[in-house]
User: Which sequence fits this backbone?
């Protein structure tokens, strides 16, 4: 009997094991425990999901802007506004300054600023598609959201043009991943597309009611209703028009923007950063980022022989550092904290755009007025009375250089736009001023 | 009667058949054939002893496994009169004379034993020492087979071989000992971080670690990031995953001292029965059990040793202050003193503190082997070569086996482990804080050591001002793991006759651990306020890991006396693996307090995974023709929650055969040809089937964005098809043994993470496709060249080479891992090696950057392990060499030194840096090395010495060293390196690693 009861025990054990297996087997359908599904936005969009996706465009557009290898810093290096002297990665010097060409195979150097903007272009397209199908949104809310999405998308395409220039980039993207890739459009086609997006957005925003249904960041303080956001849209259109040499259009767009001779020069739209969990901080105050010595050397002095206010405000003296035989003892003071905002577009640039448009249209006097406004208001410098057609472009570029210093690669882009890359100071004769970014290898490989 | 030897419940010693009809036990074969039909060990009542005779009953058992030895022969010495044991090793020997008699016990797989049966004794249990060839190997979830019949090359390593020179982790103890296993450390950090790769790369994006089965428990070898990337910003570049955290693969928790044996099934042809988790091979670990016939046995080992920095890089010596200023700027003039230099590497990593390990074990068997027990306790404290680094382990194990009568046997094993590793701050970082990263730009005229005021100097030669000595003194990077591994199995004999038996086996195993990572960077650190403007960082990571597996098997075995046996098993298994990791980063610590609620900026991340698998299998093992011919076949069906269709069944078949040819010449004792084919899978990783969105926020407003990777809703396991063939011979009465194996494995339906055109909005996409092929050869030679006059020299060499090729790729070539083409990238390309490294090789014709071509390969040309042991009297000397020929390393540490103008060979460095801007190969180096892995000298105390201590029965003293010498042309710290931890493809990238060390040990073992 003892044996028998042991057998029973074992049978019970066996059954138990089997049932452990059975019970613990549970379901083989295990969902994604970490992320919301793509289908929740593409197949069954909800109002809250769509609104979060709209706010998400600000997150997507902010990606890759800050940081030592972000847009502001890297464009600054190319335009000889800044150095990144990082003993942990020599490529900030070897590739960005020394090498004869940018390397399309290095994802965070020559291959940068491509994936992030195109990811956000897809985000916007996904949102636009979801807006058509989502329930629980009014027509005005949909229109406001469309206008916002297309404006941000235009900004993302502008990153492509600014970095790739004549290398171009595809427009008709966001196709299913296994479809034929959209052809590479030219720079002109990209600009035309950006202009069209901004104009479409204008129409949407005009029908967008009084408020956005989703929250914008503090970077859009003062511009967070469809009507006010439209002024940002027009400001961007003005920048694009100037880049395209369409000066009359630029002046029209500026007239509909928030340009103001009396408002703060800093009025405008910004990338906002946050220290909260899941947010992104601004790391442009990294200790590896230095100002190029020419910024200080070329700065004008005020009447009292002190430095241009902009230089005083944006630079700070730091311990001298030498890496790969490049030396700087100036850091940037522009971004004081990890939550400092980075300008997307602001009043000071608009005034300078108006000056540039006027120069383009031959209105030297109007341009001079604006440039002197900037000299006095922003730099604390004396107004120049000697500006004429021969020197006003140089003055424009100089004022743009100091007004927009280290906030989005303006100097490099401006020098290229005006065929003046050769004027950028090379630290050594063997160094290179790169003209434009190549298409990343991931893109060209996929097209082979 | 399940054998617990292999740890699977499943283990059966059925095929460890005695026999003696052929082969090397031929002496007996004659006896048997000449003898009259031997009385069988019938359970029928033995006849009453006649006058002057007696009937003796008993059992013949294996000393190692404690199992009964079937078909052993017990003869009256010098006669053919005798009996044979039954399947369980039991025998009944009637009609023995009453007088004392000499018996001779023989079995083909055991050493012969002669012994005296005293007058009047009616019971006799005989323990036989197994011969080498008797070793059994696991061939399935519920079966094992004698090595002599095995259809695959199975590498096994036994306890003694693991113990010669103390190793901190199981994988390091295996280095150089298994043909076809390339085992390399990722850095010199204490506490582990090793990659074990069997027969080349087997996947590009799937799981790359082998399956570890410890006493039937699927023990997790997962590597979980510490979270230090939140300080080093290593994820800030092109590698967003925290793989650069110097991760520890968790099999390192296992105490090598508890291990009885390790068996390695290298590929699909052997491991198919483990299905979709076996494509990287299976490492089957059996822990120690009590041995029959040894009463309570107590062993205590005390080890004392130390670790020592084994290699340094050196840095530039500046000839003048101008040189120094030119390189480092004006600040250099403040510190430069002609002729005065400091060895900052030695100051950082020159510690050699005492390390200790104490191991105690208790084992034995009770009630004639019905109860067997093994208990062990271990306390280990390794002191690392850098201040505040080290590795501590405390473990307790209890293994119990109980037989209930003839039919039921239950085993339980439990293992409680605590490991704590202090890992320091090393490897790639973008914040200028990790030890060697700082040293690359710190000139040797600057003294990092504490000044007379007791303060470390701030380092003016790096923007972060980090001083590695201060960092090491003040920071904490502790990885604390509490782990409980438990297993239980039960075997019930349902039905049994003379020739057949049907058994039900059930098992359950649980592996549960918690990994806590506590990292504290106090505000006093020079870099703390500088790196992010926030003083002090506290990181707390905790991962809860749970692995459960269970199975039910039904095994039928049939054996005839003609040397034919058949073993049929069917079963099902279930596995569940869950990981939940939460990381909290707290910055700007108020008053330096380390609690994560003390910071003003707190960030939380959580990452979960949950996988459930079900498997069903059937297996048949046949041994035919007097044990000459083995045929084995199996098929396993599997479902898994990670597949696109979780209910889809994937089948993994295997078939193998081996034939023991009659030895062609007398010098050859055994000559076996074998061939096997099998298929395994490799499951998609959790999440690869999902195309998901990412939650984010901007100033607290909820946001959703796309993730850069797209999944594949139809994703399915990779499929590995492996065919291997080999020849095993035993020569010169076992004094030499030679094995050769060739294999080809093709892995199709690869889990690819191809690069998409980023303009699609996605950067990568998971999908199945392409094919990868590995071909290789493995040789094993074991011999005893000298055995005379008290001297025994045994030598054991392994050789392996493997070549891989991407034979099919349905998408354009793509790069996987590394820091971009300019610094060397691994490129998956049709027709090329799977581990090729490509880089820039000059500008293109149109002047743009750059022509890209292969510049190296991380696959070694070949790997050799060579162990020699010489025993003279009570002394044993042993040395293990490990030779790797070929393989390329991307030496980015050298690039960093060069770029800082701080390399010892400065002029050459300038040229390298110049070449590098368009030529990646500049920083590729040959990783060939020869290492003296283990060297030891042991002395077995003479019995009279040992027993002089009361209670002591035996004593052993040894001195040993691990990684004593390295011979290499590699200019970096260690040719075994990987900044990215354990990766399927990416390896051999050297970025400011933890420096390597050698260790010296003295051990005393006493047996009570």
Assistant:
């Amino acid at each position: 009997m003892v044996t028998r009861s042991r057998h029973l025990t074992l049978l019970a054990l066996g059954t138990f094991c089997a049932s452990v297996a059975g019970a613990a087997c549970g379901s083989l359908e295990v969902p994604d425990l970490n992320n919301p599904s793509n289908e929740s936005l593409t197949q069954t969009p909800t109002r809250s999901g769509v609104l979060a996706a709209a706010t998400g465009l600000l997150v997507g557009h902010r990606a890759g802007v800050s940081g030592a290898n972000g847009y502001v810093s890297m464009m600054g290096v190319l335009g000889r506004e800044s150095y990144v002297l990082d003993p942990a990665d020599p490529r900030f010097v070897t590739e960005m300054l020394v090498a004869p060409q940018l390397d399309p195979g290095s994802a965070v150097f020559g291959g940068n600023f491509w994936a992030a903007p195109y990811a956000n272009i897809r985000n916007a397209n996904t949102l636009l598609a979801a807006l058509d199908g989502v329930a629980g949104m009014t027509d005005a809310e949909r229109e406001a959201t469309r206008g916002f999405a297309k404006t941000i998308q235009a900004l993302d395409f502008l990153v492509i043009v600014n970095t790739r220039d004549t290398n171009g980039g595809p427009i008709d993207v966001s196709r299913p991943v296994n479809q034929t890739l959209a052809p590479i459009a030219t720079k002109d086609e990209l600009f035309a597309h950006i202009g069209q997006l901004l104009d479409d957005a204008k129409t949407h925003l005009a029908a967008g009611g009084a408020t956005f249904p989703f929250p914008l960041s503090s970077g859009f303080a003062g511009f967070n209703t469809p009507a006010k956001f439209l002024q940002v849209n027009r400001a961007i259109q003005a920048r694009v028009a100037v880049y395209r040499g369409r000066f009359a259009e630029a002046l029209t767009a500026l007239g509909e923007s928030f340009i103001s001779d009396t408002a703060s020069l800093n009025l405008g739209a910004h990338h906002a950063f946050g220290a909260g969990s899941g947010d992104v901080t601004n790391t442009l105050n990294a200790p590896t980022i230095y100002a190029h010595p020419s910024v200080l050397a070329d700065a004008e002095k005020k009447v009292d022989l002190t430095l241009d206010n902009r230089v005083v405000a944006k630079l700070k003296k730091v311990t001298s550092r030498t890496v790969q035989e490049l030396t700087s003892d100036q850091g940037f003071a522009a971004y004081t904290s990890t939550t400092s905002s980075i300008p997307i577009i602001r009043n000071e640039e608009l005034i300078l755009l108006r000056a540039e448009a006027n120069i383009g249209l031959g209105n030297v006097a109007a341009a001079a007025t604006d440039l002197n406004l900037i000299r006095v208001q922003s730099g604390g410098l004396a107004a120049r009375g000697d500006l004429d057609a021969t020197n006003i472009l140089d003055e424009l570029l100089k004022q743009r250089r100091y007004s927009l210093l280290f906030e989005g690669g303006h100097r490099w882009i401006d020098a290229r736009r005006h065929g003046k890359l050769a004027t950028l100071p090379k630290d050594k004769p063997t160094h290179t001023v790169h003209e434009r970014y190549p298409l990343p290898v991931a893109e060209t490989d996929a097209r082979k | 009667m399940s054998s617990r030897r292999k740890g699977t419940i499943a283990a059966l010693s059925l095929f460890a058949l005695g026999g003696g009809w052929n082969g090397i036990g031929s002496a007996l074969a004659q006896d048997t054939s000449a003898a009259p039909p031997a009385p069988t060990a019938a359970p029928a009542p033995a006849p009453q002893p006649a006058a002057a005779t007696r009937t003796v009953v008993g059992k013949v058992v294996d000393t190692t496994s404690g199992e009964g030895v079937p078909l052993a022969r017990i003869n009256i010495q010098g006669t053919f009169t005798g009996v044979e044991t039954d399947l369980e090793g039991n025998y009944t020997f009637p009609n023995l004379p009453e007088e004392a008699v000499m018996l001779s016990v023989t079995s083909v797989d055991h050493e012969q034993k002669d012994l005296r049966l005293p007058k009047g004794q009616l019971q006799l249990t005989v323990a036989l020492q197994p011969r080498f060839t008797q070793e059994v190997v696991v061939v399935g979830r519920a079966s094992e087979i004698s090595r002599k019949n095995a259809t695959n090359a199975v590498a096994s390593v036994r306890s003694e071989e693991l113990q010669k020179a103390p190793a901190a982790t199981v994988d390091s103890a295996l280095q150089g000992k298994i043909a076809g296993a390339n085992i390399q450390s990722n850095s010199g950090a204490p506490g582990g971080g090793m990659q074990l790769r069997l027969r080349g790369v087997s996947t590009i994006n799937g799981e790359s670690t082998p399956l570890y089965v410890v006493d039937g428990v699927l023990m997790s070898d997962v590597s979980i990031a510490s979270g230090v990337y939140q300080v080093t910003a290593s994820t800030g570049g092109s590698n967003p995953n925290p793989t650069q955290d110097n991760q520890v693969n968790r099999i390192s928790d296992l105490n090598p001292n508890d291990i009885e044996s390790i068996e390695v099934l290298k590929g699909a042809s052997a491991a198919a029965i483990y299905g979709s988790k076996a494509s990287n091979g299976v490492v089957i670990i059996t822990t120690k059990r009590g041995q029959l016939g040894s009463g309570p046995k107590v062993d205590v080992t005390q080890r004392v040793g130390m670790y020592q920095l084994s290699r340094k890089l050196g840095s530039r010596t500046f000839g003048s202050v101008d040189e120094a200023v030119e390189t480092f700027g004006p600040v250099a003039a403040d510190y430069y003193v002609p002729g005065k230099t400091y060895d900052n590497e030695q100051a950082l990593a020159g510690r050699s503190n005492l390390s200790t390990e104490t191991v105690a074990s208790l084992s034995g068997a009770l009630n004639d082997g019905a109860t067997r027990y093994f208990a062990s306790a271990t306390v280990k404290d390794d002191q690392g070569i850098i201040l505040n680094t080290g590795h501590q382990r405390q473990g307790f194990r209890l293994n119990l086996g109980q037989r209930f009568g003839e039919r039921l046997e239950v085993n339980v094993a439990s293992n409680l482990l605590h490991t704590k590793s202090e890992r320091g701050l090393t490897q790639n970082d973008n914040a200028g804080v990790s030890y060697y990263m700082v040293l690359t730009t710190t000139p040797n005229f600057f003294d990092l050591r504490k000044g007379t005021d007791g303060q470390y100097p701030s380092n003016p030669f790096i923007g972060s001002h980090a001083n590695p000595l201060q960092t090491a003194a003040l920071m904490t990077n502790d990885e604390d793991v509490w782990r409980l591994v438990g297993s239980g199995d039960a075997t019930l004999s349902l039905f049994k006759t003379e020739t057949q038996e049907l058994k039900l086996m059930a098992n359950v195993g649980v592996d549960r651990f918690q990994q806590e990572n506590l990292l504290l960077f106090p505000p006093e650190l020079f870099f703390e306020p500088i790196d992010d403007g926030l003083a002090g960082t506290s990181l707390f990571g905790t991962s809860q890991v749970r692995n459960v597996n269970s199975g039910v098997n039904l095994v039928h075995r049939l054996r005839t006396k003609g040397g034919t046996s058949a073993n049929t098993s069917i079963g099902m298994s279930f596995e569940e693996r869950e990981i939940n990791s939460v990381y909290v980063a707290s910055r700007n610590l108020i008053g330096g307090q380390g609690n994560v609620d003390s910071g003003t900026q707190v960030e939380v991340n959580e990452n979960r995974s949950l996988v459930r698998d079900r498997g069903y299998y059937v297996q048949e093992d046949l041994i035919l023709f007097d044990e000459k011919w083995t045929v084995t076949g199996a098929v396993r069906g599997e479902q898994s929650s990670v597949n696109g269709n979780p209910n889809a069944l994937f089948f993994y078949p295997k078939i193998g055969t081996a034939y023991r040819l009659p030895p062609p010449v007398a010098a050859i004792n055994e000559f076996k040809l074998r061939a096997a084919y099998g298929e395994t899978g490799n499951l998609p990783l959790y999440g690869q089937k999902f195309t998901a969105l990412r939650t984010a926020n901007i100033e607290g407003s909820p946001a959703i964005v796309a993730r850069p990777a797209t999944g594949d809703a139809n994703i399915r396991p990779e499929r590995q098809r492996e065919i291997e063939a080999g020849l095993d011979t035993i020569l010169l009465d076992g004094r030499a043994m030679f094995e050769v194996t060739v294999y080809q494995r093709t892995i199709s339906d690869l889990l690819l993470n191809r690069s998409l055109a980023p303009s699609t909005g996605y950067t990568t996409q998971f999908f199945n496709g392409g094919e990868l092929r590995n071909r290789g050869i493995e040789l094993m030679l074991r011999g005893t060249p000298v055995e005379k006059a008290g001297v025994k020299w045994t030598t054991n060499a392994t050789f392996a080479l493997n070549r891989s090729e991407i034979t099919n790729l349905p998408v354009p070539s793509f790069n996987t891992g590394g820091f971009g083409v300019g610094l060397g990238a691994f490129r998956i390309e049709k027709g090329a090696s799977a581990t090729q490294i490509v880089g820039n090789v000059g500008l293109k014709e149109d002047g743009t950057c750059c022509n890209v071509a292969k510049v190296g390969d991380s696959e070694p040309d070949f790997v050799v392990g060579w162990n020699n042991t010489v025993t003279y009297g009570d002394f044993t000397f042993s040395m293990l060499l490990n030779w790797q020929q070929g393989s390329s390393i991307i030496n980015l540490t050298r690039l960093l030194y060069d770029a800082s103008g701080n390399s010892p060979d400065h002029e050459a460095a300038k040229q390298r840096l110049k070449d590098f801007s368009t030529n990646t190969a500049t920083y590729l180096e040959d990783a060939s090395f020869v290492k003296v892995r283990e060297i030891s000298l042991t002395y077995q105390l003479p019995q009279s010495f040992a027993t002089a201590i009361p209670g002591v029965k035996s004593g052993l003293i040894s001195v040993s060293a691990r990684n004593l010498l390295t011979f290499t042309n590699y200019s970096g710290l260690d040719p075994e390196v990987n900044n990215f931890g354990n990766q399927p493809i990416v390896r051999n990238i050297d970025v400011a690693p933890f420096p390597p060390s050698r260790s010296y040990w003295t051990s005393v073992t006493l047996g009570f």
